[in-house]
């Protein structure tokens, strides 16, 4: 028998909060729905009601840049993010990551907020958002709060989202002008396959960040503030040693997409390539 659930399409946030007050954890929020539908089909989730956020007038889709930050609201589709000139200019690695999510049809429906709220260890956009220092804006009837994405993601399918909260937006600080970045992803085949490993590297004048995905229970970020990784003329052994230390913090598993040893080896190789590319992009600006 197919699971049954209610469907609500509120037009104001106050209506959405009324529903969340009533159903709590038994309510599932729908922005794009691409992950939600899969969860329903596989019976991984069984909500009593689905709350559609797409018609809420005070939570409209959009991208806004103010005071050195870019805010992407929850209903904003990945295809609109990819096409936005501000995102392309400030966060090119996020554009690269978003382009790997599913197919064109999926990206025309899926949302950035939905991708991170699904909290898959292999979420394609998570490494780029972590490397850029993104925050998640959470709202409730009682106000709002911000959490760094690194604190929002707790584990497979687990986040810090409260039962009466909505993840309303992703907020990203604009990087310094002289910053280079690169997203890299390895899969078994082209198309909509999940990542075997994924990463994003951002390099400034001194600070380098690496964020890794699909190699642990959740994506995570590491920072080198010493300047060793950011300096292409630093000691090669020191650079390699730092990268090996970073990769050693990954805890991949062996599954159909690759063994633990293969993932660790490829993570190091991809990290080395991404670092070179990010530095080259930085030095061209």
Total DSSP helices: 11
Structural class computed from helices and strand pairing = alpha+beta
Number of strands: 14
Estimate the mean pLDDT confidence: 94
Q: Approximately what portion of the residues adopt beta-strand conformation?
A: 15-25%
Low-confidence stretches: none
Widest beta sheet: strand line-up: 4-5-10-6-7
CATH fold category name of the largest domain: Uridine Diphospho-n-acetylenolpyruvylglucosamine Reductase, domain 3
Helix content: 25-40%
Largest sheet: 5 strands, antiparallel
| Total domain modules | 3
> CATH class of the largest domain, anyone?
Alpha Beta
CA radius of gyration: 19 Å
Keywords:
5-stranded antiparallel beta sheet; Uridine Diphospho-n-acetylenolpyruvylglucosamine Reductase, domain 2; 3 domains; 285 residues; alpha+beta; Uridine Diphospho-n-acetylenolpyruvylglucosamine Reductase, domain 3; Enolase-like, domain 1; 4-stranded antiparallel beta sheet; single chain
